[in-house]
Amino acid sequence: MKKNVWSRVLSALGLMLLLSTFVTFLFGNTQLVAAKALLGLAGIAAGLALSESGGARRFFTGRAAHFGFFTGVSALCVVALLGTANWLAYRRPHTWDLTKNQLFTLSEDTVRTLRGLPVEVSALAFYRQDEPDYPAAQDLLRRYAALSPRFTWRLVDPYRSPELVKQYGITDTGPRLVVTAQGAKGDARVRQPTEQELTNAVVKLTRGGEKKLYFVQGHGEPDPRDEGQKGYGVATRSLESEGIEVGTLVLLERAQVPADAAAVIVAGAKKPLLAPELKALQDYAARGGHLGVFLEPAVDAGLGPLLASFGVEADDDIVLDPSPVAQLFGGTALTPMVQPTQRHPITRDIAQTALAFPTTRSLVALTGARSAPTPLALSGRESWGETDLKGLFSTGAEQDEGEKRGPLPVAMAAARPPEAQDGRRSAEARLVVAGSSAFFANQYQQLLGNLDFFLNAASWLAEREDRITIRPKGREATTLFLTEAQVTMLKFLTIDVLPVSLLGLGLAVWLVRRGK
Amino acid sequence: MKGALAVARKELAVYFSTPLAWVVFMVVAFFAAQFFVGSLDAWRYLSLRAMEAQEPGVLERMNVTDLVVARVLGSTGVFVVVAAPFLSMRLIAEEKRARTFELLLTAPVRPFAIVLGKYLAALGVLTAALAIVAVFPGLLALFARGAQGGSGIEWATVATGFLGLFLLGAMALAVGMFVSSLTESVVVAALVSLLLLLALWVVTLFGVGAEGPVRELTLALSASEHLTPFLQGRIELKDLTYYLSFVALGLYLTDRAVEAQRWA
């Protein structure tokens, strides 16, 4: 073969090797990249060396070479400039969020939390690139890091880093995002890469002193850890993700509320509490304790005197709402939709979101009590308090004379001024009472604003008013109901009429042009 | 600019008097319609099932812009990548093959005006193809209603989706035109640009299982990854910079390649 042909072949091979180093780089083997680049350069050099006499000289000194050289240099400069611009845009994310509900804009609470981070916080997210949560996690973490230099993050491929998976105890079904903070004990786990969970994890780690909330047990109350339909498992997990520890309390065993209780919840008691238990709760309230009472219909749990001391009484009725709109999410008049009021910190931020309150009693504010309770949620105008509970299922429900008409309060909050005890003044006692104990059970917690209402109430009781209330944002629901005829028409228009018209138009233009 | 517009007008006349633009329109319309009908059927099935199973939570989350329009636009992205090389293939290569390029270079317009004019013409055809796809959200808007009243279509989200598709098309045409400036064969120009664009579309496959800078690089290079935020209704600075960088680089390199003809 002629020297000139060898020269071209070697040059081409060298150039090919040099250009393909980029693809090799994507495989992550730097040694192979270096070897290919060297071989490529050697090939080009050999090609030039073998080129016809004076060819190499002409290549470097010819008129075209000048142009090629300057073009090459300027092209490299342009590439470097554009690369820098891209790198800067990547490092300093800026978003114009044009969605209707501002889906991709972090809430003010998150911005404030991140800008005021007292310590270094880091997040490790264990997702593979092909997992559905990967883009959401990456996007969220990147936006958090852009707000604070103290927030760092790393995405870890669980298959490639089994040692980290083992170290953090990551499982397929468990939380995959671990947040740690400098000086904090342990870490916080995030189940879904959402702003609500991630911010609360950061808050939990950076705000010292965990609060403990007790659920009273022993009278048929649902277990706070139960994951069944009637249990409170989801609500408990949500409390814990926000830094509130949850425990159970059997008052007969202890005779008094533990000193570390930030709040005590009595939810769904189906048997009356015994006298020593009631006394323990009353003593706790007298010491400035915080109580959450969530009642069952047709059950006298013996909590009347305790509620009365806060100026609240629960009626022996069940609120029924026959309005079809009010039954939209519950399906029956026994699960009315109730509207939160704007009068209390618990409901101020969720006043626009209705709640579904299954089998709820109505409440009454007593006059002359030491505290004036504030209604938290009211039933609809068409509702009433049905007192004939036995006849409810046998003869059906009808509003009788003497039964209270809606709107009826179904949840109330009250704060009692401090009492003097043994010469010492105690803290303010707090009470949240609701006529329903099922609204935050696993079966109903996801409906409307139910879970938010319960979490806000628990946070107020635990004196965590600064809890981050970030409602998960979503797009507005759309109604689109099409008849069969409309669907057929849409399909005909889009699959048939539109492309065929375009084809016809094109054909006509072509034929007219041919005819000229 | 005057020269560029004159070249663009001439090029547009060529596009619309030959079957090329019409075939692109028809193909985009036909396949977008298939995706539209498929997404609409999926929507109807999902809402029917949610109503039968009395799952109000599902109905509360169903949004037609997200579940139908964004899916149609996302699928149209693939056709933009496939159609662009066919629109750009003849821009320079055909002139070189027909030996009319030297003639064009003697015209009283600067080489960059020629490049820009041809590019704007191709972009015009692609914009017309995207306008056809806008028929689908328009049709849906006649029937969809928002839960809080008003239109069921989130027009701002639809607009950002189309902006994303337009930028993707602009990038694909710039790449295609540069390749077209390197060869005399329109077939080679189309195939090579299609290969390059498909590689940029699926480059994330290389990053699956990788970690650190390699994964970041594949994501940063991917044309499809940069389209996603637009389809969701947000404009990210990094995505704008990405597409516009390719447009700038493509036009610059084409200009250099055209200029090289004078020096060859």
From TrEMBL, chain A:
Keywords: Membrane, Transmembrane, Transmembrane helix. InterPro entries: ABC_transp_unknown, Class_I_gatase-like, DUF7088. Residues 211-457 form the ABC-type uncharacterised transport system domain. Pfam families: ABC_transp_aux, DUF7088. The chain crosses the membrane at residues 9-27, 33-52, 64-90, 492-512. It comes from the Bacteria. The keyword Ribosomal protein does not apply. Residues 100-173 form the DUF7088 domain. This is ABC-type uncharacterized transport system domain-containing protein. It comes from Anaeromyxobacter paludicola.
TrEMBL record, chain B:
The chain crosses the membrane at residues 12-37, 68-87, 119-143, 155-179, 186-208. It is found in: Cell membrane. InterPro entries: ABC-2_transporter_component. It is a multi-pass membrane protein. Keywords: Cell membrane, Membrane, Transmembrane, Transmembrane helix. The keyword Transmembrane helix applies. This is ABC transporter permease.
